[in-house]
């Protein structure tokens, strides 16, 4: 920039201001008080990350959550974020002594939001995988999960082999997409960006079944008569954990200490009781899902 003429610098600065304003408007949350990391002065620059001290100095932490994955992260009828992940996000902000800014993310954008520092932490039902560990750093787990398959009662899928030659609905960027791509090449995958779109496709009969985390499809089927989770556990039992930008050791260590210390009060069991128990009722053993102290 300093080699340009003065007038060129002015135009470049103006163009940058327009670009930054556009990014800010494109990353706004669904509520007035809960926006994206790009629309405030406390945000980290793209491609960098904020340390714990920097987050505390700013007075705010930005956490990415789902807005359409009930009961883990969703926006209720009053425009407020709710769910298991949100409950944890609120505790993180409280214990850091800062305000919480929630940022809605999609499954396929979780890694990108960390790599570009749009958020400090991802708490969006994020399954730990070797591929993802190459791009982000995962803290200790706070939940465990495997895949499930939900389908219409009129043609219930009870075994993954029954999907060969059929159409399976998945959400882009999920473990279901990668699992069926690698293990069931004869299954036709119909991919969507958002969970709401995927469930609508299932209800409209555009696919034979839908696969995602078993915790999610079990909850959804309980609220949608006519559909059954015929495959309740598929693949390995995996960990759900918070993720931070690769190399952000101070925030990673703080989260690990937080998860470890919360075990003393059985925090995640309380989280389950507050956000999941009313959904699952007597059908699910909470200890089959909840992880305390980061110990699977």
Explained architecture:
- With 296 residues, this protein is α/β, with parallel strands linked by helices.
- The chain is built from eleven helices and 13 strands.
- The chain has helices at 6-26, 52-58, 84-96, 110-115, 130-133, 175-183, 195-203, 214-222, 249-262, 267-275, 277-280; strands spanning 60-65, 68-69, 73-75, 81-82, 99-104, 121-122, 136-138, 143-152, 167-171, 188-192, 209-213, 227-240, 243-245.
- The strands form three sheets. A five-stranded mixed sheet has the order 5-1-6-13-7. Strands 10-9-11-8-12 form a five-stranded mixed sheet, with helices on both faces.
- The chain is globular.
- Mean pLDDT is 87; it is low at 1-46.
């Amino acid at each position: 920039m300093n080699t340009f003429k003065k007038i060129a610098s002015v135009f470049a600065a103006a163009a940058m201001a327009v670009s930054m304003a556009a990014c800010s408007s494109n990353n706004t949350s669904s509520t007035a008080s809960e926006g994206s990391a790009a629309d405030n002065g406390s945000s980290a620059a793209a491609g960098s990350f904020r340390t714990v001290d920097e987050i505390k100095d700013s007075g705010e932490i930005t956490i990415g959550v789902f807005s359409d994955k009930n009961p883990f992260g969703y926006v209720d009828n009053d425009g407020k974020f709710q769910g298991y992940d949100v409950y944890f996000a609120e505790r993180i902000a409280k214990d850091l002594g800062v305000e919480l800014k929630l940022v809605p993310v999609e499954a396929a954008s979780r890694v990108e939001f960390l790599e570009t520092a749009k958020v400090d932490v991802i708490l969006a039902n994020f399954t730990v995988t070797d591929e993802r560990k190459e791009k982000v750093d995962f803290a200790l787990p706070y939940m465990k999960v495997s895949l499930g398959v939900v389908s219409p009662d009129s043609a219930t899928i009870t075994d993954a082999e029954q999907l060969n030659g059929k159409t399976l609905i998945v959400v882009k960027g999920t473990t279901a997409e990668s699992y069926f791509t690698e293990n069931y090449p004869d299954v036709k995958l119909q991919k969507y960006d958002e969970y709401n779109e995927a469930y609508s496709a299932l209800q409209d009969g555009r696919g034979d079944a839908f696969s995602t985390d078993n915790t999610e499809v079990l909850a959804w089927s309980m609220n949608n008569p006519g559909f059954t989770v015929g495959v309740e556990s598929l693949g390995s039992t995996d960990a759900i954990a918070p993720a931070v930008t690769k190399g952000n050791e101070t925030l990673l260590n703080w989260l690990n200490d937080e998860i470890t210390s919360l075990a003393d009060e059985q925090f995640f069991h309380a989280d389950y009781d507050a956000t999941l128990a009313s959904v699952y009722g007597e059908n699910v053993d909470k200890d089959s899902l909840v992880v305390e102290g980061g110990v699977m």
